[in-house]
Specification:
- By secondary structure, this protein is α+β, with helices and mostly antiparallel strands.
- It is elongated.
């Protein structure tokens, strides 16, 4: 039997157990102080304590602390400036393990005391910028290895901490996964991970809604990747259009040194301009003849095309 409070970690006294064990659904026990603190925020805890899990109790207290911290302090209103770092833990600055536990609470995960060792290992397995998107307790099939399976924005991982302290870890990066499927039964769900090379991994999760959470997390990853790819395609198309617009020119604005971007389209534009313009001065015609000659030198115009356009220019004199 547990001899410490599952919430604050203090040893349980005779006063804590005098009225019976303050036992939660996952086997954790609470001291009277933590129980009263949680009951002040949610009266249902008193009458239905055995239906609550430790992460739920911690979440209730955490939410109460967040609500309190959002109210302005009387000391601040009198001009006192509080420079302390805000914290929602149980004293001191929140640790990485506190952050992970808060993420578990936010996911409404129901984990039993049997995976406490695996939960503590998350500190060593998760990268600093990784955030949990789904987590569940279950069996890895076909060996029926009991452990913890979780997903982040990058991967799915199954871990099992052995009695001697070593950890078995199976990792499935998202970019190697073809699909994640799940089937819900009355009491549990089955999760199947299919990789792009055809191999698969199967897990039996203890709660029927857990498989859906992993599928949703992977589908969100696929959607974000598709949106990013579509955005990149749009940017490429815009850049191509800008390049085409910047490269368009007519006979009067053609650069002296740079070759044209689209030679065929440029020639057609020159041809239309020479056909439709009105009579112009000899000076203008000579300038256009010089540019026409440069087009010929650059290979834009053939001898025949050059002679044809030269003739049109001379007819405008």
């Amino acid at each position: 039997m547990n001899t410490i409070c599952g919430l604050c970690g203090n040893p349980l006294t005779l006063m804590d157990t005098a009225a019976g064990e303050n036992k939660l659904a996952d086997g954790h026990l609470l001291c009277n102080s933590c129980l009263n603190q949680a009951a002040d925020l949610n009266r249902d805890i008193i009458t239905h304590l055995n239906q609550f899990f430790l992460p739920e109790i911690r979440g209730i207290i955490l939410q109460g602390k967040i609500g309190t911290s959002e109210n302005p302090m009387s000391a601040n209103s009198s001009g006192f400036q509080n420079n302390t770092v805000p914290t929602f833990g149980f004293g001191g600055i929140p640790t990485r393990f506190d952050e992970i536990q808060d993420q578990i609470v936010a996911l409404n995960a129901r984990l039993s005391i049997l995976v406490n060792g695996e939960v503590k290992e998350l500190v060593h397995i998760l990268e600093r910028d990784e955030k949990l998107t789904a987590i569940a307790e279950g069996l890895m099939l076909p060996g029926k290895i009991e452990g913890l399976i979780f997903s982040t924005h990058q991967r799915v991982v199954f871990i099992d901490k052995k009695l001697l302290g070593n950890v078995q870890k199976e990792e499935y990066p998202y970019h190697h996964i073809q699909s994640i499927d799940h089937v819900e039964s009355l009491l549990y769900s089955t999760l199947r991970i299919i990789s792009k090379n055809g191999s698969s991994a199967e897990f039996k999760l203890h709660n029927k809604s857990d498989g859906r959470n992993f599928s949703n997390a992977f589908n969100q990853y696929l959607k974000s990747g598709t949106d990013q790819s579509f955005s990149q395609q749009q940017q490429q198309q815009q850049q191509q259009q800008q390049q085409i617009q910047a490269s368009s020119f007519n006979l009067h604005s053609i650069p002296d040194q740079e070759p044209p971007f689209h030679q065929k389209n440029s020639y057609e534009t020159i041809s239309r301009n020479l056909t439709n313009v009105k009579k112009e001065s000899a000076e203008v015609i000579i300038q256009q003849l010089e540019k026409l000659g440069k087009l010929k030198e650059m290979g834009v115009l053939t001898e025949q095309e050059f002679a044809e356009q030269k003739k049109k220019l001379l007819e405008r004199l």
